[in-house]
Amino acid sequence: MGVNRLLRISPLVRENLSVAIKSIRSNGLRSLLTILIIAVGITSLVGILTATDALKREVFTSFEKFGTTSFSVVRKYFSTEGGARARIRNNTTITYSQALAFKKNSAHDQLVSIYAGVASNVAVKHEGQSTNPTARVTAADENYLRYTNTGISHGRGITSNDVDLAAQVCVVGSGIARTLFQRAEDAVGKVISVQGYRYEVVGVTESQGSAFGGSADANVIIPVTTARYGLVGENTSFSIGVVPLEFELGKDYKAEAEQVMRGVRRLAPIDETDFRISSSESMMQDLTEMMGVITLISACIGLVTLLGAAVGLMNIMLVSVKERTREIGTRKALGASAKTIKEQFLFESVVISQIGCALGVLMGVITGNLVAMAMSASFIIPWVWILAAIAVCFAVGVASGYIPAVRASRLDPIEALRYE
Predict the structure, then answer these.
(1) Same domain flag for 247 and 291
(2) What is the pLDDT of residues 318-329, one digit of tens each?
(3) Is the pTM of this model over 0.70?
(4) Which of 94, 246, 327, 346 has its CA 20 to 30 A from that of 134?
(5) 150 shares its domain with 184
(6) Which residue, of 273, 296, 325, is where some domain finishes?
(7) Of 156, 128, 129, 124, which is closest to residue 142 (Cα–Cα)?
(8) How far apart are CA 256 and CA 66, in angstroms?
């Protein structure tokens, strides 16, 4: 009984809603333009935030696969000692021999992988078929797939025997396999060509989606020793991935890795560390801050557009009060109170804003997801932003309609009836 009473719409509300809809219809073109202005504002707000959220989730998923305990040792481009940003004079390249020495001297309770990106934006070919020039070639050892937590869907990964023999084999992403062979399982055993070099496909990785630097499904992984005969140049710097196999709380794995690497690079105690240790956790924190700034900027762009829509809505409501002065006088003469007149105009303003909101949310979700899917991110429905858009539009409707509604409610019925 109590719930039905709450859900039951009062006759006054129904009457005000009916009057609002009739007024919107009678001023169709003007109302439509205002609705479109609001819709554009909501589309920009919801669309940008939807695309940002979709990309944010995809990026975080890509980084989370590395785990919070893993980290990498990479070259350092700039010195930050003493607060000054200056280029380091010494060669900061991490050579393969240095990476191999680090791997040999590391603790036995750690998984160490040596890898390097050796080519990007290349096409992969097989018997007249070719992928788009978006593939990346990664030179890696037998631990790389475990370090990146990448599974194999068909075949096998790179083995230590492949590395020792510098075998002409490779593991390809599922996207490349599907493009060249229709079915991923058909890729195993076939020979592909990358930049003039031929490799036998021994495995296909599971679909990884979009990583921060592009699609992980467009990756070709070859043994690191194989890449040294052609694809690796003098300036190629190798990265070292480290994953503690049995994590012990309180143990500083990064500090241990820094000591080992300083020894490998023959640094004196007074020398500045000329390499960098980067963890997925710190990278995710940086990404969170960056995405937060992007979200804030996106929200500001949408809100500025909505501000223009609010001005337009207030203008149309003021014009509506002017044009309907005689109608307002008639309603007051028939017994309508100032409160009822005010509510009628507020309803009209809110209805216009909510229609624009519904159209803008629909367009924003579609547009945002199209942009996100073009960047290989998955489809999402941003319920938080949708609810926020509804609330913002309601506030815009009330704020834009309040002054015209008060002005309408204060009209003298006698003077209003005389108005021509």
Answers:
(1) no
(2) 776 666 666 666
(3) no
(4) 94
(5) yes
(6) 273
(7) 156
(8) 20
